[in-house]
Amino acid sequence: MTIIINLDVMLAKRKMRSNELAQKVGITEQNLSILKTGKAKALRLTTLDAICDALNCQPGDILEFTSPQ
Amino acid sequence: MTHIQKLSRFLKWVFAFIFCAWPIALFFIWFQNQSDFLAAGIGLSINNFIPGNLASQIVTPLSLTAKVWGFMVSWIPATISMFISWYLMRLFGCYEREEIFTHRSIRYIRYVGIWMIVWAIVNPIYQILMSLTVTLGNPVGQRLITLELGTDYFRNLLTAGVVFIVAHIMQQGLKLKQDHDLTV
Q: Do B182 and A32 touch (CB under 8 A)?
């Protein structure tokens, strides 16, 4: 996967815990863990919207594309 | 326990019974002391293993050698049926544990389809071998080799193909489920 999820970095910057974010976004901690560990195959725009809202950031702060080479 | 689990458990034991009963039934059918080919105490007879209308062509009682050969040739459909029963038993075991859309359960469905196709391929060879075995004791000129590819044969082949396609569709369903599970 060449899309990296920088959720841990943003959580650290905002000094927020995972369970708190999951609660604010309205997803389970298990799903948040899937997202954080990069196992997710798709991310709903509504989820991304809620995460950006909760962390007060831009989608680009969470998602990062890296070339496979 | 849900209705599906109860039904699956029942079917699992049914197929386990069929799996275990095959060797005993085969031995009983071929080596019991029967005066004609139709009489058998358990509802099965040698006739079940003789293809087509060949039973009427057997003019002499089967010798012990013919019975031994017949017994061995009967292992061809019996082995395939045992494999199918085994995989169906495992499949319903999965359903009993509520493993419906899993790689394992889909693999078992595919194996059932494969063995059904194997049976369709092997069936003509079996018919030839069995007809030769049971008519070898006939007088010269009345010994036969038969091969019958009737509607039953093509129906079995079609069923096998359908089972195989169902397994493929379920594989795609599993992929969709996994995609859904990994969508956040």
A: no
Partner A contacted by B175 (CB < 8 A): no
Distance separating alpha carbons of residues B126 and A36, to the nearest angstrom: 59
Mutate to test the interface with B, among A29, A41, A43, A47 (most CBs of B within 10 A): A41
Whether residue B145 contacts residue B128, with contact meaning beta carbons closer than 8 Å, is answered with yes
What pTM was computed for the model? 0.72
**Both tokens assigned to A20:** 């708190």
- Is ipTM beyond 0.95? no
| Tens digits of pLDDT across chain A (69 residues) | 688 898 999 999 999 999 999 999 999 999 999 998 888 889 999 999 999 999 999 999 999 888 877
Sign of CA dihedral B112, B117, B118, B122: positive
B138 and B59 in contact (C-beta within 8 Å)?
yes
Q: How many interchain CB pairs under 8 A, A with B?
A: 23
The alpha-helical segments, DSSP class H, found in A1-69 are 7-14, 18-25, 29-36, 45-55, 59-62
Tokens of B34: 């029967």
